Structures are given as structure tokens and as C-alpha cells.
TrEMBL record:
Superkingdom of this protein's organism: Archaea
Annotated NCBIfam families: KDG_KDGal_kin_Halo (NF041332)
Broad class of enzyme this protein falls into: transferase
Gene3D superfamilies attached to this UniProt entry: 3.40.1190.20
Annotated EC: 2.7.1.178
Pfam families: PfkB
Classification of source organism: Archaea, Methanobacteriati, Methanobacteriota, Stenosarchaea group, Halobacteria
GO MF: kinase activity
Protein's name in the database: Bifunctional 2-dehydro-3-deoxygluconokinase/2-dehydro-3-deoxygalactonokinase
Residues covered by the Carbohydrate kinase PfkB domain: 5-301
Record's keyword terms, sorted: Kinase, Transferase
Family: Belongs to the carbohydrate kinase PfkB family.
């Protein structure tokens, strides 16, 4: 792409529509519009931490498609978009209705037959992995269509041939496919992955792993010839196995305003530190700090700075005077 790129991500981004807190989708008269997509969330979070990040995708050349690109560019993300004819394509959307106990939060997807489901690698910019350090995608993308799965494989293979580090977040979504379908596809992709991020719950329920956290991470590492496995454990923090060592990281205390995108923020922080040359333990710390900050922010994207991450790591808090 003509310049050094720290991070390339690939996946669909949708418009996120949310009623005010306390209101229901079926009765609200107002919807807040934001963007949301796992891979673009990672790109935006990393870009805000001074990573040179590019997001690849396909969108209709319409006001809605351009709205997504404009918002991501505002966070410093460069974009490589395959633009589709708006007459025959659409932008995916999803709706979030926030609710506390006992109702909980509800997510409603409206993304079937979006422009992204027709994506082909040949539609994306040439030379995307020239002078690139890391390529990241997630398990959401291959669930969207056969074309999206095929393009995911094509890009992972191309990144590997270019010597780019490939990272993959399992990101299982039960509303997209069954555990059996997901497991079959995930395991076929692992041969093209260097670093795997996976929630412990999904490792057990989707990948059918057994044992404690260390056993699960070691098993995935050896069974699939991975370089690093990062196992996230919710309130218990994260654990990583890499280079024969086990590293653990707790969570940082945070008030939760919006938990959506927390996992993507963790990945953004982790990858930022690794791209900077940091070791896995340092990357886990950065991931945990970035995730904690995200929980205090509305929307999918971690709208943060390096200074804020460093402040969390240094244990500073209180009023900024």
C-alpha cells in the first residue's frame, strides 16, 4: 500500500442504532447512530494508540456506507474499501437495547445479504501486505457468507506468504451459526494463524477443550501449532501461553458504562504493545488497561489515548486537574 503499515484488519462494520437507556426499541422515538464491527473496533482502538492501522471491507457507495468510513477515518484509521453499487447492496445494521437486571441487554442484527457478504479478495487494494507487520481478523467474518469465508482464507494465506504476523479472535456469535459449524471452520483456519485470542467459555463450549485455563491454552497451542494463545476469562483476567511460558494478567477496576467492544479493546491494546516491540506480559497489561478504559465509554470504539492507558498502568486515577 505504499507505506509502512503496522496493522491491517478485515471484516464487516455495521451501523449501530440504540434507543436512550431505559427505552425500548418498539416504543422509542430516538435512535443514536454509531458504527460497530469487531475488526474496525480493533483498528480504531489501535490507531488511537498511535498504531498505523488499515481496515479492509466492502460497503455500498451510499450515504450509509460513507458514514461508516468517515467515522473510522476520524479515529485515524486508513481504509481499503471495495465499493459496491448501492442499487443492489445494503449496509448491515444492528440494534442495542441496553437494560439492567433482570432484563439484560438485547442485540438485534439486521445484516443478511449486506454488501460485505459478496466480498472477494480481488476487490481489495493490491499490495495490502507490503510493509505490513500484523494482520487481524475474527471468527465473525467467515460466518457471514461463503464468499466472506473464502476471502478470509485468501487474506490469511497471503499474509502468511508475505511474512506478516496473523492474529485471530474467535469471537463466536451464536446468532450467526451453530457451535459445530463454527468449530469446523475455526479449526480449518488455525493453520493460518500465529496468535489466537479465545474466551475460556468458547474454548470449552465451541472448541470442546478440557482442563483448566493453562491446559486449554497449552492444548490449543500444541494441537494447532500456534505461536501464542491468549485466553480471556472475564473478571478473572487473561492468560497467555507463548515461547514455553505462561503469563497471567488480572483486570483493572472500571465502572461499566458500555461493555460492548471491551474484547476488541483488549485486542487493540495487546496488539499495540506487541507492534511496539513489547513482550507478551507487557501486551497483556496493555490489553487489560485498554479494556478497562473502554468499559467507561459508550459505543463500540475505545476512544482513548496512550496517556490514559499509561495512567491506568501506573495506578493513577481521580480528577484530571
Amino acid at each position: 500500500m505504499g507505506r509502512v503499515t503496522d496493522l491491517v484488519t478485515f471484516g464487516e462494520t455495521m451501523l449501530r442504532l440504540s434507543p436512550p437507556r431505559g427505552e425500548r426499541l418498539e416504543t422509542t422515538r430516538n435512535l443514536e447512530v454509531q458504527t460497530g464491527g469487531a475488526e474496525s473496533n480493533v483498528a480504531a482502538g489501535a490507531a488511537r494508540l498511535d498504531v498505523n492501522a488499515v481496515w479492509l471491507s466492502k460497503l455500498p457507495d451510499s450515504p450509509l456506507g460513507r458514514r461508516i468510513v468517515s467515522e473510522l477515518r476520524s479515529h485515524g484509521v486508513r481504509t481499503g474499501i471495495a465499493w459496491a453499487d448501492p442499487a443492489g447492496s445494503r449496509t448491515g445494521t444492528y440494534y442495542i437495547e441496553h437494560g439492567g437486571d433482570p432484563r439484560g441487554t438485547n442485540v438485534v442484527y439486521d445484516r443478511s445479504d449486506s454488501a460485505f457478504t459478496t466480498i472477494e479478495a480481488s476487490e481489495l487494494p493490491e499490495g495490502i501486505f507490503e510493509n505490513t507487520t500484523t494482520f487481524h481478523t475474527t471468527g465473525i467474518t467467515p460466518a457471514l457468507s461463503e464468499a466472506a469465508e473464502r476471502t478470509t482464507v485468501d487474506l490469511l494465506e497471503a499474509a502468511g506468504e508475505a511474512g506478516v504476523t496473523r492474529t485471530f479472535d474467535l469471537n463466536y456469535r451464536g446468532k450467526l451459526w451453530s457451535p459445530a459449524e463454527a468449530r469446523k471452520t475455526y479449526e480449518s483456519l488455525f493453520e493460518h494463524v500465529d496468535t489466537l485470542f479465545v474466551p475460556r467459555r468458547d474454548a470449552i463450549e465451541i472448541l470442546e477443550c478440557e482442563g483448566d485455563a493453562v491446559d486449554i491454552a497449552h492444548g490449543l497451542l500444541t494441537d494447532h501449532d500456534l505461536e501464542t494463545v491468549v485466553l480471556t476469562r472475564g473478571e478473572k483476567g487473561a492468560l497467555a501461553v507463548s515461547d514455553g511460558s505462561v503469563h497471567e494478567q488480572g483486570t483493572f477496576e472500571a465502572d461499566t458504562h458500555d461493555a460492548i467492544g471491551t474484547g476488541d479493546a483488549f485486542v487493540a491494546g495487546f496488539l499495540t504493545r506487541r507492534i511496539d516491540g513489547g513482550a507478551v506480559p507487557d501486551a497483556l497489561q496493555w490489553g487489560a488497561a485498554t479494556a478497562a478504559l473502554k468499559r467507561t465509554i459508550g459505543g463500540d470504539i475505545a476512544v482513548i489515548s496512550r496517556e490514559e492507558v499509561e495512567s491506568v498502568l501506573e495506578g493513577e486515577s481521580g480528577i484530571d486537574r
